[in-house]
Design a protein that fits this description.
One of its GO terms (molecular function) is acireductone synthase activity. With 217 residues, the protein is mostly helical. It is built from nine helices and five strands, in the order αααααβαβαβαβαβ. Strand 1, helix 6 and strand 2 form a beta-alpha-beta unit.
Length: 217
């Protein structure tokens, strides 16, 4: 099936990411076997891919190959009209206001750029890709590494001190701050809880409408 071939192509191209020595110590690690090239082991490989994906998802891993596979799956679902992305009701109005004030908005996610564009292109608000100036994923670096934020700043031609990063993960917030990026931690239903120290240290918001951003004009 095309979907099976797609999964195999994505994950076989990234086998080293799933079977690296650094993964060997992880409980339940499932290696993906190399293809023999004759197609006889197709079902075995498909099952190994399924098991590997389930294992990675159980650990909430953010590997690039996994996110690429998820992006391919989303593309099929969005194209078939089976899915639409939902945003908190304050998000789109706030982003429109920022854009009108001359701000630029970029997305940095562990989800692939393809997946990001699918979400913003097939939302309950319609196609809102026009609200986003650019997309970044883990190809530029992991979100818990400060160098990733420096690379993004360089890529968009902006000083890190002129960037505000919104996140719900304090490890990401800490990495961004190390790069001299301003941070606000977004508190939403279903997010991981924060410690008392984190609540005291970080600027917290529960809605994008709570942010006041000066015009860039």
């Amino acid at each position: 099936m095309p979907g099976d071939r797609c999964a195999l192509n994505v994950l076989q191209n990234k086998r080293s990411g799933f079977t690296a020595e650094e993964d060997a110590h992880l409980d339940g690690a499932v290696p993906i076997p190399a293809s023999s090239g004759n197609g006889d082991d197709l079902q075995q490989m498909i099952q190994a891919v399924v098991d590997n994906v389930c294992w990675q998802m159980s650990l909430d891993r953010k590997t690039t190959a996994l996110k690429q596979l998820q992006g391919h799956m989303w593309r099929a679902a969005f194209a078939a009209g089976r899915m639409k992305a939902e945003f908190f009701e304050d998000v789109v109005p706030a982003v429109r206001k920022w854009r009108e004030a001359g701000m630029k908005v970029y997305i940095y996610s562990s989800g692939s750029v393809e997946a990001q564009k699918l979400l913003f292109g097939h939302s309950t608000e319609g196609d809102i890709l026009e609200l986003v100036d650019g997309h970044f994923d883990t190809k530029i670096g992991h979100k818990v590494e400060s160098e990733s934020y420096r690379k993004i700043a360089s890529s968009i031609g902006c000083s890190t001190n002129n960037i505000l990063f919104l996140t719900d993960v304090t490890l990401e917030a800490s990495a961004a701050e190390e790069a001299d990026v301003h941070v606000a931690v977004v508190v939403r239903p279903g997010n991981a809880g924060l410690t008392d120290d984190e609540k005291t240290y970080y600027s917290l918001i529960t809605s994008f409408s709570e942010l006041y951003l000066p015009s860039s004009a």
